[in-house]
TrEMBL record:
<keyword id="KW-0812">Transmembrane</keyword>
<dbReference type="InterPro" id="IPR005829">
    <property type="entry name" value="Sugar_transporter_CS"/>
</dbReference>
<keyword id="KW-0472">Membrane</keyword>
<keyword id="KW-1133">Transmembrane helix</keyword>
<protein>
    <submittedName>
        <fullName>Sugar/inositol transporter</fullName>
    </submittedName>
</protein>
<dbReference type="InterPro" id="IPR045262">
    <property type="entry name" value="STP/PLT_plant"/>
</dbReference>
<feature type="transmembrane region" description="Helical">
    <location>
        <begin position="81"/>
        <end position="99"/>
    </location>
</feature>
<comment type="similarity">
    <text>Belongs to the major facilitator superfamily. Sugar transporter (TC 2.A.1.1) family.</text>
</comment>
<dbReference type="GO" id="GO:0015145">
    <property type="term" value="F:monosaccharide transmembrane transporter activity"/>
</dbReference>
<keyword id="KW-0762">Sugar transport</keyword>
<feature type="transmembrane region" description="Helical">
    <location>
        <begin position="284"/>
        <end position="308"/>
    </location>
</feature>
<dbReference type="InterPro" id="IPR044778">
    <property type="entry name" value="MFS_STP/MST-like_plant"/>
</dbReference>
<feature type="transmembrane region" description="Helical">
    <location>
        <begin position="320"/>
        <end position="342"/>
    </location>
</feature>
<dbReference type="Pfam" id="PF00083">
    <property type="entry name" value="Sugar_tr"/>
</dbReference>
<dbReference type="InterPro" id="IPR020846">
    <property type="entry name" value="MFS_dom"/>
</dbReference>
<feature type="transmembrane region" description="Helical">
    <location>
        <begin position="170"/>
        <end position="191"/>
    </location>
</feature>
<feature type="transmembrane region" description="Helical">
    <location>
        <begin position="19"/>
        <end position="39"/>
    </location>
</feature>
Length: 514
């Protein structure tokens, strides 16, 4: 998951730690950052399918959707301005990530979450009060800055404050909250679309203020992580917080390991340069590939634009929002499946099983739409429409227990300590960059590819499944410090990058010389 600074992974030794109330409260408060992100992802698709919203900000699209046979079903929503409304958030998030990496290290995780909360609140005010497109886009950009800061600080806060034995589950808590945020947004849109007078979209955008205020309040109430305090030189305060969150006085072993990890992390003067060293390339290649593949499953295309997509397929306005709520609920439930199965079944098995499920469901959707939905037909037919929703749910469920959480989890556990901060920054940047690309291009692609858009994404699912099969090693239950010996040096391809002890020695000298 996105990170800044350093964190201590589970070593072979299990430190004494109770699951204290302060840890539970801190994690719930921090995870509202995921709720905010999910709400922003889910709300945009709903409001862009509301006639009153389109009439005010995108009159061209409004005319296309209300005039019969004016344009192909697939091209009704093809508008760069409309796509920019959705995608500007991710471009802003991408830019903010670079600043967030610095603040997470220098100011701490808690303050970075507070900055994110403030950006979210201001952005929500701009959006809910928008009178023109400029105000709307500025609001989305401010929300994007909040996303950049929250996605950087929250997951690393969660992983640092949680006891080792529940760290994996708590990391996925962030992803679970993202899916709950999407579902909440879909439910809100379903309700506000029924409001007479055409101001429902303002309420949809304004309700983002709830998770925004929760995150801001949470950031004011929680303590910073011991890792962050030690990293910034506050050793005694770090020790006191560690004692408080672990609920025991026997904290010396963990405290000493944190101090040592901080010392090692400070010795690395050029983490980004270190990432390009030969022995760090496998982790970098896998982290970048996972982010690109995560977006090219087509999931965000479905999540951003679910109501618009179902409208395009001939569902009525009400039915399309209703279908989006169903897919949102499936998303939440399937992410819970991941929390329980990821450390039992393993990462590779979940990804490979999901690959088969996603591939088949997308091919079925493409065949149904190709045969049954012509460019100007108004209705898919009830039976076929139900089949499309079922297939979309099948696709969403398999994504939510595989590529959704694991696209973040695997990079967070494969980078060695000295490059973890830099590696996570690149992971977040690549993810947001490709999220922006898909958000900006999807409606135009839908217009040009028509039902073939699902074949396009299913082709990518096939490619990524082969990547997992041959190039992704299993990292289940392996301490991070032992990854090199037990994972990379045992892999048929990546072991070739690990046999450079001479380079290791020269790196130590080089790092010492800087």
């Amino acid at each position: 998951m996105p990170a800044g600074g350093f964190s201590v992974a589970s070593s072979g030794t299990e430190f004494e730690a109770k699951i204290t109330p302060i840890v539970i409260i801190s994690c719930i408060m921090a995870a509202t950052g995921g709720l905010m992100f999910g709400y922003d992802v889910g709300v945009s698709g709903g409001v862009t399918s509301m006639p009153a919203f389109l009439k005010k900000f995108f009159p061209v699209v409004y005319r296309k959707t209300t005039t019969e046979h004016l344009d192909s079903n697939y091209c009704k929503y093809d508008n760069q301005g409309l796509q920019l409304f959705t995608s500007s958030l991710y471009l802003a998030g991408l830019t903010a990530t670079f600043f967030a990496s610095y603040t997470t290290r220098r100011l701490g995780r808690r303050l970075t979450m507070l900055i994110a909360g403030i950006f979210f609140i201001i952005g929500t005010i701009f959006n809910a009060a928008a009178h023109n497109l400029a105000m709307l886009i500025i609001g989305r950009i401010l929300l994007g800055c909040g996303v950049g800061f929250a996605n950087q600080a929250v997951p690393v806060f969660l992983s640092e404050i949680a006891p080792t034995r529940i760290r994996g589950g708590l990391n996925i808590l962030f992803q679970l909250n993202v899916t709950i945020g999407i579902l909440f947004a879909n439910l809100v849109n379903y309700g506000t679309a029924k409001i007479e007078g055409g101001w429902g979209w303002r309420l949809s955008l304004g309700l983002a203020g709830i998770p925004a205020c929760l995150l801001t309040l949470g950031a004011l109430l929680v303590v910073d992580t011991p890792n962050s305090l030690i990293e910034r030189g506050h050793l005694e305060e770090g020790k006191a917080v560690l004692r408080k969150i672990r609920g025991t006085d026997n904290i010396e072993p963990e405290f000493n390991e944190l101090v040592e990890a901080s010392r090692i992390a400070k010795e690395v003067k050029h983490p980004f340069r270190n990432l390009l060293r030969r022995r760090n390339r496998p982790q970098l290649i896998i982290a970048v590939a996972l982010q690109i593949f995560q977006q090219f499953t087509g999931i965000n295309a479905i999540m951003f634009y679910a109501p618009v997509l179902f409208n395009t397929l001939g569902f009525g306005g009400d039915a399309s929002l209703y279908s989006a709520v169903i897919t949102g609920a499936v998303n939440v439930l399937s992410t819970i499946v991941s929390i329980y199965s990821v450390d039992k079944v393993g990462r590779r098995m979940l990804l490979l099983e999901a690959g088969v499920q996603m591939f088949l469901s997308q091919v079925v959707i493409a065949i149904v739409l190709g045969l049954k939905l012509s460019d100007n037909s108004e209705n898919l037919g009830k039976g076929w429409a139900v089949l499309v929703v079922v297939m979309v749910c099948t696709f969403v469920s398999s994504f939510a227990w595989s590529w959704g959480p694991l696209g973040w989890l695997i990079p967070s556990e494969t980078f060695p300590l000295e490059t973890r901060s830099a590696g996570q920054s690149i992971t977040v940047c690549v993810n947001l960059l490709f999220t922006f690309v898909i958000a900006q291009a999807f409606l135009s692609m839908l217009c040009h590819f028509k039902f073939g858009i699902f074949l396009f994404f299913s082709g990518w699912v096939l490619i990524m499944s082969f990547f997992v099969l041959f190039l992704l090693p299993e990292t289940k239950n392996i301490p991070i410090e032992e990854m090199t010996e037990r994972v990379w040096k045992q892999h048929w391809l990546w072991k070739r990058f690990m046999d450079d002890d001479d380079e290791k020695n020269s790196e130590k000298k080089t790092n010492g010389a800087y």
